[in-house]
Design a protein that fits this description.
The protein is α+β, with helices and mostly antiparallel strands. The protein contains 14 helices and 9 strands. The N terminus is likely disordered.
């Protein structure tokens, strides 16, 4: 075994933490250590060039769940990326988005160039409200399209912004992190404009209802990847945590999403089930208990009702 391979495996052993059969990486630095990539982290923010990371990171990445956000601008190259239950080939002039708590894996197809930005919700929320990451930027939600194709001009414009950030990261500056937050917000807003142009936009909703929906979505996300034995299951339990009546929670969710609150809970659970079925080799029974079903039979019935297929049929699709 070469020294390089030994060091990589040693770092994997030191930093990997498995929850529900998935490597869980809580910080950006843990992620860098895991993939053997050296890049400065500025208190919850980092930016690097894809061509630099491609020299050291594994060509095939096992499934992992991360506790930070990721934006990737691919200028050239190709990678097969799985984000939650979705799979796509990302190539030249592509913007890729991944939110906090998402499950990812990849296989590198061709050497890439471009940029990748990592940041935590805590870094962003120093200036902006944390819940704006989901309410204002739809590409970070769990069921959003993970990537969009952009034009060469759009790509070159974002490239200039990324180069400015990298240049600043190499300088000794006062208030550097505040400058990064400003650039990050510009990138997010420009990405939102591009995303809405390519994918579409939602109607404007009342701020109070929007806050309730976002807090509800955040509570749902907290039920996964933490290893907690006690989780929220019923709409009544979620509503209690939000200090509102279950009827009002249902009204808000129905008016904004077109689904009941329980449907939103079930949809997220189904997405998690698909991710575990497609990205791990865990048995159906193991996944059922990971998702807090009383027994595997209930899990099989749940999946069959929602998809028309059994868990094993989904896995083999």
């Amino acid at each position: 075994m070469s020294v390089a391979v030994f060091i990589f495996l040693k770092k994997q052993y030191l930093f990997q933490v498995k929850v529900d059969g998935i490597y869980t990486l809580s910080t950006i630095q843990e992620y860098f250590d895991f993939i053997n990539f050296e890049c400065p982290v500025f208190n919850g923010f980092a930016i690097g060039r894809l061509e630099d990371s491609a020299k050291v990171i594994p060509k095939k990445m096992p499934p992992y769940r991360k506790r930070f956000y990721k934006i990737m601008l691919i200028l050239s190259g190709e990678i097969e990326m799985r984000n939650n239950q979705d799979n796509a080939y990302l190539e030249t002039n592509t913007l890729f988005f991944s939110g906090e708590g998402h499950i990812q894996s990849w296989e590198s197809i061709a050497p890439m160039s471009g940029y990748v930005i990592y940041f935590t919700s805590d870094f962003y929320s120093v200036v902006h409200k944390k819940n704006k990451l989901h309410s204002d930027f739809p590409f970070f939600t769990h069921n959003a399209s993970m990537s969009i194709k952009i034009t060469t001009d759009e790509s070159e414009h974002l490239q200039r912004t990324c180069e400015n950030i990298i240049s600043l990261s190499q300088q000794e500056l006062s208030h550097k992190e505040d400058i990064f937050r400003s650039y990050l917000n510009i990138l997010l807003l420009e990405s939102k404009n591009l995303y809405e142009k390519k994918i579409g936009t939602n109607a404007v909703v009342q701020d109070s209802d929007k806050r309730i929906l976002n807090s509800f979505n955040q509570l749902i996300e907290q039920q996964y990847g933490t290893g907690n034995e006690e989780v929220l299951k019923s709409v009544k339990e979620f509503a209690k945590q939000l200090y509102i009546h279950p009827t009002h929670l249902n009204y808000v969710v129905k008016s904004l999403k077109g689904n009941t609150a329980l449907q939103l809970v079930h949809n997220r659970k189904l997405q998690e089930a698909k991710s575990l079925l497609l990205q791990t080799s865990k048995t159906v029974s193991e996944i059922a208990y990971d998702l807090h079903f009383d027994n595997p039979t209930h899990f099989v019935r749940f999946v069959k009702k929602k998809t028309g297929k059994t868990p094993l049929q989904l896995r083999n699709t």
